[in-house]
Amino acid sequence: MAHLNRKMGIPSFDMTGKTAIITGGTQGLGFGMACALAAYGANVVITARTAAKVEDAAADLNENYCKGGRAIGIPADSSKQENIKEVIAKTVEEFGSLDILINNAGIGGETALIVENRPGRKEYTVDNFRRVIETNLTGTFMFCQEAARQMIKQNETNGKKGGRIIITSSVGGFIGGKGVVGYGASKAACLSLARTMANNFGRENITVNCICPGYVITPLNEEFFVDKDGNFTDYYKQQSKSTSVRRLGTIEEIAGPVLAMCSDSFSYMTGSYILVDGGQSIPAE
Fold it and tell me: Which residues contact residue 136 at a Cβ distance below 8 angstroms, ignoring those fewer than 6 apart?
């Protein structure tokens, strides 16, 4: 039987010539995302509040991960609009354009809605709730808005090249965990924010999507999951039971989907999300 005469383009994840900003990019998931983009040729700008941390992380990227592009670090508070504008201006000054924004900066908050009969736990106050929303939601909105403004400006000279905006949401935006109420609320709101922005910016060839990780072992939480002898703790085993695959995720398993979402191969996906949670959001047997 003769094959039909058809030609299929092969998906590419090449980032050569593209410039990405990753907020909260000095460690954990953010640094993993930065490594993936750098390894595929992108110029990478990482932000965090501490200058020493962004300088150290940028040096690590340049030495070990960058393949064709460069990395720089810019200290910034992602909840402050003047800092956001400065990051974008410096990025364009250094690399000529902004093609990708990964909004990864975020905080968790306290652990209990109320503390009666819960000795040793810290109650979630209104001030704490506001601080989490301000960072995780309002800060994300401002960074997305300013990034899109720059991408639209670039469209005037490059024929609607557009851009990619990725927001780090969470499985916590889908399921109600214990405590961390502000975190869950902010991450659920980010899903709606992405959909609304996608609808507004689509005509400019700017896509807006969310990555939604489940439990992932990072340098920040490793002590809870792995003991000093390298064995999994009871807490790890307990949390693993909430997933279908009976284990927690790795940074690489989040960085991979983010790389794909930033690529031209995902240019038709917008206002959506990828849930990478090992089945935590579905009933585990």
Answer: 106, 107, 182, 183, 186, 187, 190
